[in-house]
Known about the structure:
With about 120 residues, this protein is mainly alpha-helical.
Amino acid sequence: MSRPSLGRASLASYVSGFVLSLLLTVLAYSTVQRHSFGGNPLTVMLLALAILQVVVQLFFFLHIGSETRPRWKLLTLFLMLVFGMIVIFGSIWIMYSLNYRMTPHQINTYMTDQASSGY
């Protein structure tokens, strides 16, 4: 009984995807650590690196676009994006709502309580 094995091209694809992912992660980390940018340019740079990281993951590891019947993978990808957007925008909405509803005195009291309890 033969076992399926990774071919040379497949192994090379995984290795190059890993190296690209590692480089993008190190680039994002070093950009923040060295304070290369500040404010909005930093946000734009990190967002661009995150999108590039997603593209690398999709093509090198999930092999989006290389299958014969891409319909199910694309449907799964779309559903993942919808759930991701719900989580991201829902979290932002909740944080904005909490920030809007708290008075400065409540915020200071909360921060003082957290600092004194060791968190």
